[in-house]
Amino acid sequence: MHLVLVDGSGFIFRAFHALPQLTRKSDKLPVGSVIGFCNMIWKLGEDLAGDDAPTHMAVVFDYSSKTFRDEIYAEYKQHRPPAPEELVPQFPLTRAATRAYGLPSIEMEGYEADDIIATYTALAKDVGGKVTIVSSDKDLMQLVEPDGSVRLLDTIPRPGQPPLRWIGSDEVFAKFGVGPDKVIEVQALCGDAVDNVPGVPGIGVKTAAELINTFGDIETLLSRTAEIKQPKRREALETNAELARISKRLVTLNRETPVELPLEELVRQPVEPAKLFPFLKAMEFFAISKRLGTLLDADPEAWPADPELAAKPAEPIGFDNNARAEARAARQSAEGRADSAPVLHAKLEHEKIKAIPLDHSKYEIIRDAAHLARWIDAAYAEGIVATDTETTGLDNQTADLVGISFSTGPGNGAYLPLGHTEGHGDLLGGGMAEGQMDLRAALDQLKPLFADRSILKIFHNVKYDLGILARYGIEVRSFDDNLLLSYSLDGPQFNTMGELSDHWLGLAGMSIKELLGTGKTQKTFAQVSIEDAAKYAAEDADLTFRLWKVLKPRLVAENMTTLYETIERPLAPVLARMEGRGITVDRQILSRLSGDFAQRAAALEAEAYELAGGNFNLGSPKQLGEILFDRMGLPGGTKTKTGAWSTGADVLEDLATQGIPLARTIVDWRQLTKLMGTYTDALPSYINPRTGRVHTTYSQHSVLTGRLSSNDPNLQNIPVRTEDGRKIRTAFVAPSGKTLISADYSQIELRILAHIADIQALKDAFEEGLDIHAMTASEMFGVPVEGMPSEVRRRAKAINFGIIYGISAFGLANQLGIERSEAGEYIKTYFARFPGIQDYMAEQRRKVKADGYVETIFGRKVNFPNANSSHPAERSFVERASINAPIQGSAADIIRRAMIRMEPALKAAGSDATMLLQVHDELIFEVDEGKEDGVIPVIVKTMENASEPAVRLTVPIKVDAHAARDWDGAH
Asked: Phi and psi at residue 892, in whole multiples of 5°?
């Protein structure tokens, strides 16, 4: 047996791109690709003659619908453009041509042509047959056999190559560096940009082949990453292990496709003129008819045209109106008249989802294991499930799990109640409500689903759910998060489910306030009736699925996939684990500090009364303004819109620098009372009674530039420039037997500025490890670094950091306490010495006005919708912010990348150190006492190399790391 399998889809597209787009004369039906296809099929029969002649033959096509691979990885082939509009009506005609030539035409919904080819190849091998696969597709090279029993035949003419190029195991090795049996291992590592197979970032074919030849396969490699000497390569593999596994599943051909046509029915049949010529006449292929009539010794005129094919074009198999619209738009896009194909795909998906009505009557309540099993089976069948946890509160470290909702597609949803109490409207509650599964039994049943990497779980604010589920022993693998999808695309514009669904779906959804109530009568979710809770929770899951269908295609359309996949999504579980760990806070230290601050605040209050000539409320801006500017008659006062005097921090600092004692006293009093109210008095209330530690909550999605924010409590605003502020940090301690490590990026934003503005003098200074502020002062003012007065260096430091934030002469003058004209001269001198900075600033202003956004070095878009506002103040703000945003945002992206890589790096080093906090450019760790020296180099190296391989900075990144018993000592 010699089975020849033709990649029909490859023939079609090759014909389309190689030949002019001819049309049928009678009705202008596009037929150019059909002509090319017919000629290629006939020529193939002529080429495969003699010993190469097939005994069995078939042409295999892709069916134009989603396959099982889309369930494994939603973005598989998503960025491929749709078929050109002229080609769409020719698809069914090529199938008809195949049958007219006496060949089986095979395609299957849900499977790619490659899977069908792989299956027939396996069937032929089982009976000792030889197989020729007519294709140049590299994905089929995994089927090649070293003994020559399975080969590929490339019929595409190439310069310097024979017209027929056979591909055996030697040719496969030349392409992949491995034999055919290891091709899928290499493909899984290096990925495939054409099919959007992710692979492992930074690993190409050569490196992948080297790794597979050393370790044998993906799983062995991933289990032995500690043996890889190159740290960046090791980190890439450990960080992206899941992507590698998913990629392997994507590239592995299914050799057990349920083909319907038996192998025996692929026997090569002679061409029947009665089938061939009616087809050719209907297509009006008169030249081909004449040529083949001669070869077959038949009269083409003896048969009439196929009436069905002659009457009108057949409807394309597997193509619907959306596909036609996509094809049309793809062609128009090439001509500059419409959106790109990925953009159009996103728009069409959006419109399709918006058209699905919201129907609460379709939602289900899961009350027993059998019902839950059906939903779990549905999740496995779809390969994807949207899910949401319902709890008793917003703190995932203390809230109790009440229920879990699910949706496996837009329009469906179910709620699994687990912790509802009786007496729904009674705030005192009661026992457990009836009709609920046992919580532990339900979670045990769900545990494999959540842990299964092959099932994609969709969340909204996954970090919260990860924290909840982790406390109940549930590990979540393979997820998407609509909140982070939205943040990657639009920044912090939409945060809540309601905001997203209202904007993208036109659906407001049920109100949680209406469900729970407000104020004194507010209930917890556990006190809501199961029926009402089910409507709300199932709707949440349904809307989550719908939003994912809208947002995920936009990643490809707007080129934001890399940001989401390499930074935003992998960071969420890292933050969830950090929140779960918390940090120890010493109550006694806080109590002592609170007493000291209270005494000093009282003394300052008495001092203020004496300076003001009487008692007043120091916390009242109105009373303070009247004393300063009415009673004392101090100059420089301005009034707010309400008519009250402005007494903000900048006003008081200005008065204090002018030597007004009362202003200085008020500033000091405000600082102390703020430290008391925010930290020394408040922090003890945040200590979790279960863990004895403070657990801050990080917001990954709320800052325009990508910085993290910290809440409940906010640990990022503890002042570090004052002695009292630093005292607060002494209360953050390591428990017995442990030590804290603080690792802080040194002047990261200035280093990024030097890189992106290409300032050679700054880059040289960083390379040589010089004092950057002293160097700047020396460059600007011509003062030698050695013996430089501290005031000169201070001014250079103010300018260095001020420039990053687009500071004006007015702002610099206020900061340095000098005249505006003098500050203006400083800025001019700075730009003259470092001209690249002014060029960078001008480019950012131009870009934000033209595009409405600027970008970090990792492609994060920082949006400024008011870039062209008619209000001068708004435009001025945008111009300043657009200068700083790429710098601050790039620094934020770098530390995010460092955090993602840190846990695998520590694990690879054999360390059990844990990452506890992130504060701006600083990371805080907890490590066993005595192991600091072994851990610090790992931390520093991971942080300093975090930008690579995506971005190779032209300046060195420096990290300062120290260990101590408390945070202040380690900083």
From this structure: -65, -40
